[in-house]
Amino acid sequence: MRWRASVTMGTLLLACGPQLVPAPPEAALGSRASLAPDASAPDTAPLDATTPDARASSCDRHPLDGGDVADVLYACARRAYDGEDLAVAARLFREVAFDHPTSSVGVYAAQLYFDCLNRMSDHETDWHAEVTTVLALYCGAERAKHVDDCRRFQLVDAQVRFRAAAALFERASRNRDGAEMERAGDAFVALYRQDCGKAVEKCDELLYDAVIAYLGAGRRDRAEATAQLVFDPKNRMNDGPIAKKLRCKLGDGGTC
Fold it and tell me: Which helix H or strand E contains 154, and what residues bound it?
């Protein structure tokens, strides 16, 4: 029997920004919304070149004439972004965000870099490494300057980790690998503990998938312990449909 995870990207709370992580080839999660620039984000800076080829050439010169390198690169990236040349925009936004973090446009470049990857359905980039770097640059000592932006980046981080947990779950189910299935359960629980109420809205669904993973791994003891987090009235999940499904799955009554 193949188990299936119940959690979808809808479980992730998108109040602080639209979905940013691209769906894998085998999953259809609806349209990938664009991350609109912050209202205070600069648009473009004046450039002497007027043709697309001339603008692209001017963006590749270092240092650039006409002002601060980060500002001019950001302007070039915005021109490419608005023209739907997302590969060029992503490269330039990444350069601004990673190489010029103290620039006034650095944090906006980071947001739009992830949006470009998302809109291109990029499956090659190591999202975990990229998000980790952005969090270190903008949400460590500099967090006070970027509170709202850091909430967006933490959402992306949660989505990346959710994708990894879901992929692990599917692979374990396909291969009937009990040890890997147990690790998938651990990953869902870790998401619950770290992100419930922050980047995760439907916490009981994450725990449901953890329980299913543990059952698939033959670890009923861990499944029952995890289910208790849903059943505990203090966590305010004990009367919902997920709690009823869990009671049925564990043989305690309820509707499956």
Answer: helix 147-175
